Amino acid sequence: MKSISTDRQRLRTRRRQLGFAGLLVGCIALVEVKAATAPATHRITLGPSTTTATAPVQRTATAPSTSVGGGARPASRASVARSATGRPIDIGYGIVQVRIVLQGTRITDVVPLQLPSGGRSGSIASYAVPQLRSEVLAAQSPNIDTVSGASYTSEGYARSLQSALDAARS
Amino acid sequence: MEPSPAWSSPAAHLGVRSVLAVGALAVVGLWWLDTSAGSVVGLGATVTSVGRVAGLVGAYLVLVQILLMTRLPWFERAVGLSRLAAWHRGLGTSVVSLLVAHVLLIIEGYALTEHHASLAEGWTILTTFPDMLKAAAGLGLFLLVAATSGPRLRARLSYEGWYWLHVSAYLAVAMTFFHQISTGADFVGSDLRHRATRLLWTAIYLSVAAAVLWWRVARPVRGWLYHRLVVEAVVPEADSVVSVHLKGRNTNALGRAGQFLSVRFLTPGHFGTAHPYSLSAPPTGSRLRLTVKAAGDHTQALAWLHPGVPVLADGPFGRFTVREATQPGIVLIAGGSGIAPIRALAEDFSRAQAHGYRRRGHEIVVLYRASRREDLALASELDQLHRSQRVVVRYLVGRRAELGYDPLAADSLHRLVPDITGRDIFTCGPPGMVNAVEESLARLGVPRRQHHIEEFDL
Description:
The complex is a heterodimer of chains A (170) and B (458).
Chain A: H1 6-36, E1 81-85, E2 89-90, E3 95-103, E4 106-114, H2 119-139, H3 151-169
Antiparallel strand pairs in A: 1-3, 2-3, 3-4
Chain B: H1 10-34, H2 43-68, H3 73-78, H4 81-114, H5 118-128, H6 132-149, H7 151-156, H8 159-183, H9 192-227, E1 230-238, E2 241-247, E3 260-265, E4 275-278, E5 287-293, H10 297-301, E6 311-317, E7 330-335, H11 339-354, E8 364-370, H12 379-387, E9 391-397, H13 400-403, H14 410-416, E10 424-429, H15 431-444, E11 451-455
Parallel strand pairs in B: 7-8, 7-10, 8-9, 10-11
Antiparallel strand pairs in B: 1-2, 2-5, 3-4, 3-6
Helix pairs in contact in B: 1-2, 2-4, 4-5, 4-6, 6-8, 14-15
């Protein structure tokens, strides 16, 4: 395995670096495009939403949907997307609070606003939340199975979700 | 075990690449359909999502790396082992880098969402999430494999050491699999959709494992049971060059002149590795000859092989054959071990002409490049071919410094073979020599499709 001329080697290394960079940029672009498909009415709520002062609402990554210009209120059709925020639930070693996105009467997304942080409870929460979300979307109700090893988190999640649904329906 | 037919087309390469690209799109599509726009919004969520995509694509590319070297007949016919190995080498660093990026991004993403320090978050993930220790160990193995495949570190390892380290990549794949279905966001969950994707992902892994077991283990064993190849004799040819004569059943089906086999001698000291060796003569019904230049500890040990040793041969590989020729006139250029396929091709071309399969009147020119007279191997056989007036042999002996010029430079090649631009040129030898010839031919204006290369760099 003799080494070939350094020019060729340099070209090869350069090509490989570009290849990796391309892959990474591709991944980032994919996620950004996905984020951009977030409904523009994400932060506009048609029902009374119980957003408490302590809720650290995360800024959306894409500017157009959340700027002040997003005040173009859509007509109140049943199919328009709306969101509702649930109550923060204290589960003993942290707060669980979720926000739901509804399309008509269908839950299309559940976004965690607050989760327990710190050591094991934080990691349990971040592991359990994707599962809980998919179960809610499948069941279309807060009556879901607890994730094993995350019973407190599951309960807090369900209760915050229920309060969000109540807020959306009222 | 038919010798692979020669399909020579960039279209076939594109076909294989497209199939692999479609696979990547399918994996990405899986993520796209499973992820809601709302869940990637926010810095922590975005970073985690990029990490997830990187992990999915990285895992897919690892499977692609394995498939490239599994010797699937379709890949072999469409692309050929040498080029597949080049793709495999080229992709290696990108894949491992992507996996490292996956780990760092996920840790950072979780850390941002949880408002933790990154290192503490990383430790938490490692020690409390399911199957993470296995995955970390697997990643460590991948890094080791990638590092030792680079030119600097590889030179320090024996061939056997490097080979077995590389084989441990299979273990690394198995170890990293489990964390994917036990913690991957697109795979966990008891709902139908996620159960289905878990099943599908597991099925994909099992299929790749089955392909490896079939084409890399079962097929060579089946081949041996059919051909019963054993060593007949080991004959020294020149300074550190030996020919290994093999005998068996239906050996002419094992390959044609110019191709190579992946050979494993089943005897103590040789069990551990398989090497690619070229046929140095067209095979007969019961005899096969390989000619090897001793370059490392293993090839040097070939001289001590005794008759009767069983041989596990996989192949044939390579499209460096008579069928690739597009023109009536031929030039064969050999250097070092490259003499083996070149000498075989010389006889094969000559025979094809004699039997009327190729047009007569255009002689076959063989250029044999060596630094010293003692390095010339199989010279007597080349001389015999020369005497029967079917082949013209020119020995280009001597170091460039002593000669004062480069016999493989453009003007020199043109002088040796004035009509070279209208011929097919087959070159086989060490990378430096092959590069030099490529450059000369480019300068002379020889179309790329008329230049065929076999590089000994596996």
